[in-house]
Amino acid sequence: MKAAVIEKQGGIENIVYRDFPDPKIAPGDLLIRVKACGLNYFDIFVRRGMPGLPVPMPWISGGDVAGEVAAVGADVSGWKVGDRCLVDPLTNEGMMGETVQGGMAELCRVPHDYVIALDPRLTFEEAATIPANYGTTYRMLFTNGDLQPNDLVLVLGASGGVGTAAVQVVKAHGGRVIACAGTDEKCARLQELGADYTINYSTHDFSREAWRISGKQGVDICVNFTGGDTWNPSIRTLKQHGKLLTCGATAGFDASTDIRYVWQREIRICGSNGYTKEDVTQGMVEIAEGRVKKPPFRAFPLCKLGEAEAIMEARDFFGKIVMIP
């Protein structure tokens, strides 16, 4: 098969599109012919190298796989060759693309319990925007955030994959959204997705603006997966008993915390590290039914993975990037 292979950790020049051995499936596996694979920031972390997470080289990243069943393991029932499917990448063997070889290839191997029948109303490209972004969003907002109708939710980094998912899911479930992005163009597109308010954080202090928009009461929930110098300002946006939700730190993990706000406002800081197959399935169903708008994405051929990762690193995109083998 052809694959976008990380030959060694470092820069994008280490991604080589080449022949790679086909995966060998066990009795409980499905072999998936990849039709589309969503790009996530963790793919960049895998390529760069992460402390405490050694990855054997050469390696194939990619977890958000949509495709067709190409072969069925001997112990698997209920699936046949040609069935359309979506993959829950957080398998019992580890995260696909991080600790298990991933889907930036023509074929990938997946334990059958982590494969979902793809709703016929969705294309492969649309489906590949769902697993990590919407799974994470449902876990953050509902399992950990206890989102309620009419909650005011501030979303940082709202123009990316998790950000656009959060904006749309909050709106679908009766909440109000303040969406933050780095350009006026992205803010305008977020309004088109349903954001009630937008803040261009490159020209405005998002913390002050959110405080003003909330009538100086604070927001109920702040979604912050950027970290870095946005962390303390995010804490200041919260109302009494507000919740700060995080699932990453794309702008830096070693952030300072002004704990005066934590105790004075009795806020809760909730981390999310993963999701369930049910979270992914809920995202797929709500998008297919039209409750949540179909996610915006930009598609690239798989042989251009390095170019796509460079665009993601520069934050020069909106929504999701999807790779097509």
Count of strand segments: 17
CATH-level-2 architecture of the largest domain: Alpha-Beta Complex
The CATH superfamily name of the largest domain is Medium-chain alcohol dehydrogenases, catalytic domain
Q: Which word captures the global form?
A: globular
Number of helices: 10
What is CATH's topology name of the largest domain?
A: Quinone Oxidoreductase, Chain A, domain 1
The profile of the biggest β sheet is: 7 strands, mixed
CATH class of the largest domain: Alpha Beta
| Count of discrete structural domains | 2
- The helicity comes to 25-40%
- Termini separation: 10 Å
Which stretches are poorly predicted, pLDDT < 50 over at least 5 residues? none
Give an overview in words.
The protein has 325 residues and is an alpha/beta fold. It has two domains: 2-129 and 295-324, Medium-chain alcohol dehydrogenases, catalytic domain (Quinone Oxidoreductase, Chain A, domain 1); 132-271, Rossmann fold (3-Layer(aba) Sandwich), CATH 3.40.50.720. The chain is 28% helix and 27% strand. It is built from ten helices and 17 strands. It has helices spanning 41-48, 124-127, 131-144, 161-172, 184-193, 206-213, 231-236, 259-264, 277-289, 305-313, and strands spanning 2-6, 15-19, 29-39, 64-72, 84-87, 90-91, 94-95, 107-111, 115-117, 152-155, 176-181, 197-200, 219-223, 238-246, 268-271, 297-301, 320-324. The strands form four sheets. Strands 3, 4, 5, 8, 9, 16 and 17 form a seven-stranded mixed sheet that branches. β14 (238-246), α8 (259-264) and β15 (268-271) form a beta-alpha-beta unit. α3 crosses α4 (161-172) and α3 crosses α9 (277-289). It is globular and about 60 Å long. The mean pLDDT is 96.
